[in-house]
């Protein structure tokens, strides 16, 4: 029978032992050293007023020994009101990634709602950034930003000031219990990160969701169609940033909200 080490992290197949110390402890680093992010913001209906669709091209990831991957996520602006705390931030509705390793780690150890898609690197042509995602050969979404201009230091400082107190990414960590779903984990968590921007551009963004059938995408069509069903009432200023990111900032661990 497998016996876990209570002081070490385990992932399946756990009978090969806990994660190597390079994978989870010093000198473990959660820095993504070369990231390009595209973030398109739009206003939808009253229940979820602001939606952010973001793409990250992640290169030179420390915990992947320098390898990288791409991701596309969808956030909704929310306020968490618990029994002990109230936080303003974003709620992660879904995160597509094109590499199994961060999907497994993010779902199994952290509870982030990660799923797979084919996500190519973004393109930059005539001042326009664009990218897309697909699965089983069927398009999920197209993302683009154009008419970009750089922010000066004063405007960047103003943007940073506007985000103070709102940097609380949240999601629902749900893990169904074997044979009895009513006893599974169902927690609201926050998973902070920190970013360093070398470039900061603002422009006009757009997204185009596809509506899919079960035959086209049997495991995700309901997710895609639900997101496509949120009306785009108006677009807000959208962003392109280049820099680095730390997904486990010191002093701000992932935790269950109360």
Short description:
This protein is mainly beta and 258 residues long. It has helices at 21-24, 100-110, 153-162, 221-228; strands at residues 31-43, 50-61, 69-81, 86-97, 114-116, 123-125, 128-135, 138-150, 169-175, 185-190, 194-209, 234-235, 238-246, 255-256.
How does this model look, in words?
This protein is mainly beta and 258 residues long. The protein has one domain: Acetoacetate decarboxylase-like (Beta Barrel), CATH 2.40.400. Helix content is 13%, strand content 46%. It contains 4 helices and 14 strands. The chain has helices at 21-24, 100-110, 153-162, 221-228; strands spanning 31-43, 50-61, 69-81, 86-97, 114-116, 123-125, 128-135, 138-150, 169-175, 185-190, 194-209, 234-235, 238-246, 255-256. Strands 1, 2, 3, 4, 5, 6, 7, 8, 9, 10, 11, 12, 13 and 14 form a 14-stranded mixed sheet that branches. β2 (50-61) and β3 (69-81) form a beta hairpin. The longest helix is centred in the middle third of the chain and has 11 residues, at 100-110. The model has no long low-confidence stretch (mean pLDDT 90).
Per-chain topology:
Layout: H1 21-24, E1 31-43, E2 50-61, E3 69-81, E4 86-97, H2 100-110, E5 114-116, E6 123-125, E7 128-135, E8 138-150, H3 153-162, E9 169-175, E10 185-190, E11 194-209, H4 221-228, E12 234-235, E13 238-246, E14 255-256
Parallel strand pairs: 4-5, 4-9
Antiparallel strand pairs: 1-2, 1-12, 1-13, 2-3, 3-4, 6-7, 7-8, 8-11, 9-10, 10-14, 11-13
């Amino acid at each position: 029978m497998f016996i876990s080490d209570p002081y070490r992290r385990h992932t399946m197949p756990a009978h090969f032992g806990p994660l190597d110390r390079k994978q989870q402890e010093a000198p473990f680093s959660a820095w993504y050293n070369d990231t390009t992010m595209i973030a398109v913001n739009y206003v939808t209906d009253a229940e979820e007023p602001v939606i952010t669709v973001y793409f990250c091209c992640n290169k030179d990831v420390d915990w992947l020994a320098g390898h990288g991957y791409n991701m596309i996520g969808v956030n909704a602006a929310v306020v968490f009101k618990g029994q002990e705390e109230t936080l303003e931030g974003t709620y992660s509705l879904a995160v597509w990634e094109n590499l199994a390793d961060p999907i497994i780690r993010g779902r199994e150890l952290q509870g982030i709602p990660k799923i797979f898609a084919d996500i190519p690197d973004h393109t930059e042509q005539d001042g326009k950034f664009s990218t897309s995602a697909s699965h089983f050969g069927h398009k999920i979404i197209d993302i683009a930003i154009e008419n970009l201009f750089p922010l000066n230091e004063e405007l960047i400082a103003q943007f940073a000031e506007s985000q103070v107190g709102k940097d609380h990414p949240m999601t629902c960590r749900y893990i169904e219990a074997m044979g009895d779903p009513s006893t599974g984990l169902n927690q609201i968590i926050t998973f902070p990160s920190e970013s360093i921007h070398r470039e900061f551009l603002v422009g006009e963004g757009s997204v185009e969701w596809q509506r899919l059938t079960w035959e086209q995408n049997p495991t995700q069509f309901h997710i895609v169609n639900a997101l496509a069903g949120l009306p785009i009432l108006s677009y807000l200023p959208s962003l392109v940033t280049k820099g680095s990111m730390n997904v486990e900032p010191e002093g701000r661990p992932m935790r269950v909200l109360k």
